[in-house]
């Protein structure tokens, strides 16, 4: 407090006089001043890096992920310091919105038992996939997105987009993409909601043909499929709510880039020890 007062008043009064009045030494004051200047310079340098990381990652990273990125770059600092600098600079990621459920399970098609039972862990790739559909507004109308997510790495292994919800144009295509890219062995557990797009004969026939066990959420219970719902919330928070898509083609391109270039390969996931899904699979593969 004394040194701060001297710094504030030294333009009006001699430093020697101020130090004598406050019973401190000039050498102590100037040493404090040098330390403060060094700290402020370090804060400015660190804030520059924080801004770079924030912008490189779609303005989506909070202090935890920015801190992990700084550590990965060899920068030594505390998370509380990162939080303070972000708060003082007004650097804040967007906030999540309330979830809205859109599944239509009012059909007479057979449904499967909930075998997943909210066990969202997986010991290896291609042991358990979860899937669902969401919608994105464009000025041309709705664009529907179906994804297949591997619970082991939280990686999106299959996806498809279309302007309709017909199974042959959306959910089947996302599943075909996942099967082609991953080629799972028999015994994979596939979990979805009870929507007709997943309960229909064509979809169920494909699961049976590939030896995949079907699991479905309980009626009206979004928490039974919480991981894929969380991905949709993240996608909308970090991309969809920040854009106004003029056309479905524009939305398709942006979502493709988000999934394949950012989410799967770059975005740090807290569940994975702040690795990206692709890096997590590579790391666990090397460990094995």
Write the layout of secondary structure elements.
Layout: H1 2-9, H2 15-22, H3 26-56, H4 63-72, H5 79-89, E1 128-138, E2 141-150, E3 155-162, H6 171-182, E4 189-192, H7 196-199, H8 201-209, E5 213-216, H9 226-238, H10 248-263, H11 277-287
Parallel strand pairs: 1-4, 4-5
Antiparallel strand pairs: 1-2, 2-3
Helix pairs in contact: 3-5, 4-5
Tally of DSSP β-strands: 5
**Class from helix and strand fractions:** alpha/beta
Task: Give helix and strand order, one letter per element, not per position.
Answer: HHHHHEEEHEHHEHHH
Shape from CA axes?
Answer: elongated
Tell me the number of helical segments per DSSP (H or I, 4 or more residues long): 11
User: What separation lies between the terminal Cα atoms?
Assistant: 57 Å
Runs in which pLDDT lies below 50 for 5 or more consecutive residues are none
- Strand composition percent: 5-15%
Rg for CA atoms: 26 Å
Main attributes of the structure:
single chain, 288 residues, 5-stranded mixed β-sheet
Model description:
This protein has helices spanning 2-9, 15-22, 26-56, 63-72, 79-89, 171-182, 196-199, 201-209, 226-238, 248-263, 277-287; strands at residues 128-138, 141-150, 155-162, 189-192, 213-216. The chain has 288 residues and is an alpha/beta fold. A hairpin with a 4-residue loop joins strand 2 and strand 3 (155-162). The longest helix has 31 residues, at 26-56. The radius of gyration is 26 Å and the shape is elongated. The model has no long low-confidence stretch (mean pLDDT 88).
């Amino acid at each position: 407090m004394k040194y701060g007062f001297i710094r504030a008043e030294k333009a009006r009064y001699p430093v020697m006089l101020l130090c004598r009045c406050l019973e401190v030494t000039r050498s102590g004051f100037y040493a404090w001043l040098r330390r403060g200047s060094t700290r402020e310079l370090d804060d400015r340098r660190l804030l520059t890096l924080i801004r770079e990381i924030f912008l490189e990652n779609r303005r989506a990273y909070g202090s935890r992920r920015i801190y992990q990125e700084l550590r990965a770059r060899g920068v030594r600092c505390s998370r509380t310091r990162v939080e303070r600098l972000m708060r003082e600079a007004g650097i804040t990621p967007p906030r999540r919105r309330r979830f809205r459920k859109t599944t239509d399970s009012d059909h007479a098609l057979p449904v499967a038992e909930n075998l997943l039972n909210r066990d969202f862990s997986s010991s290896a790739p291609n042991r358990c996939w979860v899937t669902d559909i969401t919608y994105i507004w464009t000025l041309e109308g709705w664009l529907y997105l179906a994804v297949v997510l591997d619970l082991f790495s939280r990686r999106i292994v299959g996806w498809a987009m279309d302007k309709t919800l017909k199974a042959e144009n959306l959910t089947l295509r996302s599943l075909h993409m996942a099967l082609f890219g991953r080629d799972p062995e028999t015994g994979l557990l596939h979990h979805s909601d009870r929507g007709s797009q997943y309960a229909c004969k064509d979809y169920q026939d494909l699961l049976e043909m590939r030896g995949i066990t079907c699991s479905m959420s309980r009626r009206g219970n979004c928490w039974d499929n919480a991981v894929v719902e969380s991905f949709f919330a993240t996608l909308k928070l970090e991309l969809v709510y920040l854009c106004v898509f003029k056309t479905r083609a524009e939305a398709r391109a942006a979502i493709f880039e988000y999934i394949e270039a950012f989410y799967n390969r770059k975005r740090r996931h807290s569940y994975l020890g702040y690795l990206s899904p692709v890096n997590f699979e590579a790391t666990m593969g090397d460990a094995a």
